[in-house]
Amino acid sequence: MDLGLRGRVAAVAGASSGLGLAIARALAAEGADVAISARDRGRLEAARDAVDAAGEGRVTAASVNVRDTEAVRSWIDGVADARGALHIVVPNAGGPPGGTATAFDVDAYRDAVELNLLSQIAITNAALPHLRAAGWGRIIFVGSVSIRQPIPTLALSNTARAGIAGYATSLVADLGDSGITVNVLAPGYHATSRLEEVIGDDEDARAAITDDIPLGRMGDPADLGAIAAFLAGEQANYITGAVIGVDGGLSRSLL
């Protein structure tokens, strides 16, 4: 299936590894020009090479701290200026520390909201003028299965990422028939370095997670990348305001 992404310009934040990298690679494989960003310059260069090898589109990489609103705006404006347009934006950031609700003080919650919610709003605000100018756009937020089914040991993530769904749904009404769609990916457990940080080498914890997933396995990051690429494509032009679970059936929510 040709998703119609050849010649489109995409910006993917938090793309030096894990789910962000998988999304960038999937977009590049469909022919899009992809600009990636992250903080770690070493991992970023390796990621740029991986995305470049995935497709024919042009790939650029920039070290950006998503908490720095001016740096985010400079990156987004630079991508649009260099490529002549911006069509697809994937706001994304790493996850906050794990722990239960009472394990953190208010400063930890404030930090999590800044990292996982406010940074995504900043990226979106920077991108919107360019998407409007193009008359066609895709905003694809990266949330978590916890938007639908909170995970007790990831209280900071539960709190911050739920706000992504609220913001995205509100944004849909503002954008109306502008040609810009807004959707939220809600990934479950995928085999990423982030997961390794959370559970380490605890095989019992790994088994407990897998046992609770109806498909019987953790996801490959490429599974999420494929869905992101579809949402970015022409065939998804009537999908907006959706929170799409990519979790192997983990979430039991009816909505």
User: What kind of sheet is the major sheet?
Assistant: 7 strands, parallel
Count, helices = 8
CATH architecture: 3-Layer(aba) Sandwich
Total domains = 1
Report the strand count: 7
Q: Return the string of H and E elements.
A: EHEHEHEHEHEHHHE
Radius of gyration: 17 Å
Strand content: 5-15%
Question: What report would you give on this structure?
Answer:
The protein has 255 residues and is α/β, with parallel strands linked by helices. It has one domain (9-246): Rossmann fold (3-Layer(aba) Sandwich). The chain is built from 8 helices and 7 strands; from the N terminus they run βαβαβαβαβαβαααβ. It has helices spanning 18-29, 41-54, 69-83, 106-134, 155-175, 193-199, 203-211, 221-232, and strands at residues 9-12, 33-38, 59-63, 88-90, 137-142, 180-187, 242-246. Strands 3-2-1-4-5-6-7 form a 7-stranded parallel beta sheet, sandwiched between helices. Helix 1 links the parallel strand 1 and strand 2 (33-38). Helix 1 (18-29) packs parallel to helix 2 (41-54), helix 1 packs across helix 8 and helix 3 runs parallel beside helix 4 (106-134). The model has no long low-confidence stretch (mean pLDDT 93).
